[in-house]
Amino acid sequence: MTFRYIFDGLATATNGLVTTEYLEAGVMGAPTETYNRLQQGLVDVGVLVTGYYPGVFQMSEVFELPIHYPNSTTISKAIVAMLKKGYFDKELSGMKPIVMYGLGSYQLLSTKEVTGVADFKGMKLRGPSDMYRRISETLGGVPVQMAGAELYTSMDKRIIDATWANWEMARAFKLQEVTKYTLATKLATSIHVHGMNLATWAKLPDSAKAYLSSNFENFILKSGEFWDGPIEDVHQLLLKDPNIKNLDLSPAAQTQLDATLAPIVEQWIADRTAKGLPAKQAVTDLYNILVGLGVSNPFALPK
């Protein structure tokens, strides 16, 4: 839906002059190849996950840092605010962004009970990106990479102990059947970008460009609102499941988690500052934006 309503609207805005052919996921290559295929013109529009391209979207990775927020709407509003500050202009210049959004915060779906940092030690944890490798290692866990389609069998056979995921993934991959415990960590995850090839953009009629450009912020906010519905629906199903013990971090455990993960933020700032990027200011701005959106202590802000 997030993708189609935008381009159905494009057809309307251009009186049918611009139409779109939709190809199912994977038809044009693996998700890790989308950005390259987009730049090469093998696809006109692609949906890419910034976390799949280490070193490419260096400032956008600020949204992947171990921060916490309640839902996709919140991070979508933060994306709009951060875009206005120009932090991502250079790294997004290789395509025309149509929409950016986060798929809600990430929780822990587990076969073992976790109530605090100490419980992560030795656990085999699946995560979606290099940032989650760092998060898992910092917590004392063993990071494991695998496709979403492998999660059910891997949890069922205890190949992994848990996966970082948003609530909706429990339905998408039937993880509710193999999950024994959940922990509401509300941690950040990669940003999705629907990007258009620059040559394709250049060929569009003015009416198409006007429609996409003038609605860019609205697309971001609407995408956030859209994802919150199904994510919360699944969360409620998990809360009502008698076979699953659903847990929240205590205030003390949350403080300890933030303190344990704080070095990741500090190192991220140091690495990007060394490359001449305004990392510290970006982190400070994101912190203040999230606080302004009602998130209390979204992460341990480095001094």
Structural key phrases:
alpha/beta, D-Maltodextrin-Binding Protein, domain 2, 303 residues, 15% strand, six-stranded mixed β-sheet, three-stranded antiparallel β-sheet
Care to describe what's here?
By secondary structure, the chain is an alpha/beta fold. It has two domains: 141 residues, 3-Layer(aba) Sandwich (D-Maltodextrin-Binding Protein, domain 2); 142 residues, Bacterial extracellular solute-binding protein, family 7 (D-Maltodextrin-Binding Protein, domain 2, 3-Layer(aba) Sandwich), CATH 3.40.190. The protein is 42% helix and 15% strand. It has eleven helices and nine strands. It has a six-stranded mixed β-sheet, covered by helices on one side. Helix 1 packs across helix 8. The protein is globular and about 55 Å long. 39% of the residues are buried. The mean pLDDT is 94.
The SSE string, one letter per element, is HHEHEEEHEHEHEEHHHEHH
Mean pLDDT over all positions: 94
According to CATH, the homologous superfamily of the largest domain is Bacterial extracellular solute-binding protein, family 7
Strands across the major sheet, in which order? 5-4-6-3-7-9
CA-CA gap between termini: 42 Å
As for the number of domains, it is 2
Number of helices: 11
Uncertain segments of ≥5 residues (pLDDT<50)?
none
CATH class of the largest domain: Alpha Beta
Strand segment count? 9
Oligomeric nature of the chains: single chain
Q: How would you sum up the global shape?
A: globular
- Proportion of strand residues: 5-15%
Strand count, sense and barrel status of the largest sheet are: 6 strands, mixed
